[in-house]
Amino acid sequence: MLKPRESIARMSPYQSPIVSRAGLSLDLNESMAGCSPRVLSRLHSLSVADVSLYPEREAGERIVANFLGIQPEQVLLTNGADEALSLLFATYLAPGDELLFADPTFGMYPMLGEALGAKLVSVPSGKDLAFPTTAALSRISPRTRAITIANPNNPTGLAASRADLLKIAEAAPDAAVLIDEAYFEFCGDTLLPDLPSHPNLFVARTLSKAYGLAGLRLGVLTGTAEQIGYIRRHSAPFNVNSVVMACLEEALGDQAFVRNQVAQVKQGREQLEELFAELGLRCWPSQANFVLVQVGTTAKVFVESMQRHGILVRDSSSNPGCEGCVRITVGTPSQMDGVVQAIREAIAETR
């Protein structure tokens, strides 16, 4: 009788986080402003060849490398950042090897590690959900082969310091240390300049957040040329689609659009933080495009009330240390007044 690998058989099925697309989706950290008008214009001008021929990924990697100020050999474009994670884990993790991560964090880390038969080493976050540098250092062992750190973190929005992240990389020279910078544009801190001096370090980026291209699925994995070369060996040659390749130069070229979106997100973040302070609710100082707020035991009721107001938010109560917490993506300035009013009414209902 045909059977799957044991690591797959014992996994729980993946559940899509998409509950509905009706209303305002503030539950998945997508860009509510959409993408650059320059990207839309390029989409409208797509030719038959743009969609009927296989994409030339290497050309896109040269564009991204030039934008980041590194060599093309240091860049691998992937089908979203999720594929970057999958490829990196498959390159360095064997069954029984240890994958270390702080909790709470992005749920794909343990899921992909478990699928490969890795031993999951979950380190609880520190006080106020801060990155647990000392605890993480103490859990590094000779079996540690991969360490993943979302910076800023999801679902907290908190960022670890460059010094602490480098301590982790230096303490585990035999492990692939991935800094997932999906929310880099909203934070501004990066370890990209540290790649040359840390051959075990990788930095991942995405065009899903600040660039508003979540539906086109483009991730960027960077590292030293040697290590990216190993990962490239088992990457499918046509893993990224030709549509996003056609739009890539316009997306990266419109930095004025990105800066404007980031400024609006920061303004909306501040608006939410001031609202929660006024309502007596605890929230964390986010450096991403969302805010995590603790509404208490009525979190489920709050989420349902927001949905009745036509706004989807994410119940994060199941994440370690996030009991009673809800994650809310920042909307556009024109959306935020309605969001604030809905939150006021939802909190009044729960009380």
Descriptive overview:
The protein has 351 residues and is α/β, with parallel strands linked by helices. The chain has 14 helices and 13 strands. It has helices at residues 6-9, 37-44, 48-52, 57-68, 80-92, 108-115, 133-139, 162-171, 184-187, 225-232, 242-253, 255-279, 299-308, 333-350; strands at residues 24-25, 75-78, 98-103, 119-124, 144-150, 176-180, 201-206, 219-222, 282-283, 290-294, 311-312, 314-315, 325-329. Strands 2-8-7-6-5-3-4 form a seven-stranded mixed β-sheet, sandwiched between helices. A four-stranded antiparallel β-sheet has the order 9-10-13-12, with helices on one face. A two-stranded parallel ribbon has the order 1-11. A hairpin with a 6-residue loop joins strand 9 and strand 10 (290-294). Helix 4 runs parallel beside helix 11 (242-253) and helix 12 packs parallel to helix 14. The protein is globular, with a radius of gyration of 20 Å. The model has no long low-confidence stretch (mean pLDDT 96).
Number of helices: 14
Total number of domains: 2
CATH topology of the largest domain: Aspartate Aminotransferase, domain 2
Helix content: 40-55%
**Uncertain runs:** none
- String of helices and strands: HEHHHEHEHEHEHEHEEHHHEEHEEEH
The total count of strands amounts to 13
CATH classification, class level of the largest domain: Alpha Beta
Mean pLDDT value: 96
SS-based class:
alpha/beta
> What's the CATH architecture of the largest domain?
3-Layer(aba) Sandwich
CATH 4th-level superfamily of the largest domain:
Type I PLP-dependent aspartate aminotransferase-like (Major domain)
Distance between the termini: 55 Å
> What percentage of amino acids are in beta strands?
15-25%
Question: What Rg do the Cα atoms give?
Answer: 20 Å
Q: What about the largest sheet?
A: 7 strands, mixed
Order of strands, main sheet, comes to: 2-8-7-6-5-3-4
- Using the alpha-carbon principal axes, give the shape: globular
